[in-house]
Amino acid sequence: MTQPSVSIIIRTKNDRPRLERLFQVLRAQDYQGQVEYIVVDTESIDGTVAYAKQQGARVINIKQSEFNYPKSLNIGCQIASGEILISLVGHALPLRTDWLSGSLQHFLDPKVAGVYGHVLPHKYPEYPKRTWAECFYYWRGFTAQWLKRRYKLDRTQFGILGCTNCAISKSLWQQHHWSEAYAGGGEDGEWASWTLAQGYYIVCDYHFSVYHSHGNNFSNMVKQHKYWCRLWQPSEFDVKNLSWRKDLF
Q: Which of 18, 59, 61, 168 sits between 20 and 30 A of 49, alpha carbons compared?
């Protein structure tokens, strides 16, 4: 059976040490199909761009003043050649060597529009030190998902198809891009809602989970959760609204 071609779109900003570990994990995947790497970088000054090019990635540079979440995704998707588009951030890290192959098998069902997994706090020294607040928040969701293993969603829910780590059909993206009305975030939920309305499914698979965290303490985790809860409505991107995210400054 022919394996679908894949484009992995990685969004970065000053992720050089973390990007090295990410590429090590991606190169170790057991997937046998064609994979291309696209890095959409926002004004990195730490060697991220040079390293990405060294790894054979196609690099697109955007200015911080032009950045927003859906725009950075659409830029990568526009030049992608793969049948399946995978969204990652440079400071996320897949848990497993079958992370890629396990997620792509779901697309054998023509009614599957996208696949995503939950996130766990990082455990490696290149990343922000994990906090008990993040551990509780993320492990709670991961454990609930682990009990179900994998399941299809025919209605939207909090966190559906989070673009920290998700895979979507390029043919469906061509019909409906990530909505730039959701510049501040929430473009993933909007896209999922659109596909569900067309009669497709979204798969949640714990095998597709990644490490991803920012070292938020309890207070900042509360702020982050409140911010996420507002993303059901379109909003502009303003980095000042994410003042606790020091990696954005």
A: 168
Q: Which two tokens mark 105?
A: 């098998």
Tokens read off for 85: 């588009």
Rounded CA separation 145/33 (Å): 28
Residue 177 near residue 93, CB atoms below 8 Å: no
pTM of structure = 0.83
CB 101 within 8 A of CB 177: no
Pseudo-torsion of CA 64, 67, 68, 69, nearest 10°?
-100
| 3-state SS, residue 71 | helix
Q: Is pLDDT at 88 greater than 70 in this prediction?
A: yes
**Where would I find the beta strands (DSSP E) of 51-91?**
58-62, 84-89
Q: For residues 247 and 91, is the Cβ–Cβ distance under 8 A? A: yes
User: 244: exposed, middle or buried (C-beta count within 10 Å: 0-12, 13-18, 19+)?
Assistant: middle
Residue 95 DSSP SS3: coil
- Average pLDDT of the chain? 84
CB 54 within 8 A of CB 75: no
6-248 folds as Spore Coat Polysaccharide Biosynthesis Protein SpsA; Chain A (3.90.550)
Q: What is the pLDDT of residues 98-147, one digit of tens each?
A: 999 999 999 999 999 999 988 887 665 445 555 544 555 455 555 555 55
In sequence order, the 6+-apart residues with CB closer than 8 A to the CB of 146 are: 206
Say which residues have a Cβ less than 8 Å from residue 152's Cβ, sequence separation at least 6.
Answer: 112, 201, 202, 203
The answer to whether the CB of 187 falls within 8 A of the CB of 144 is no
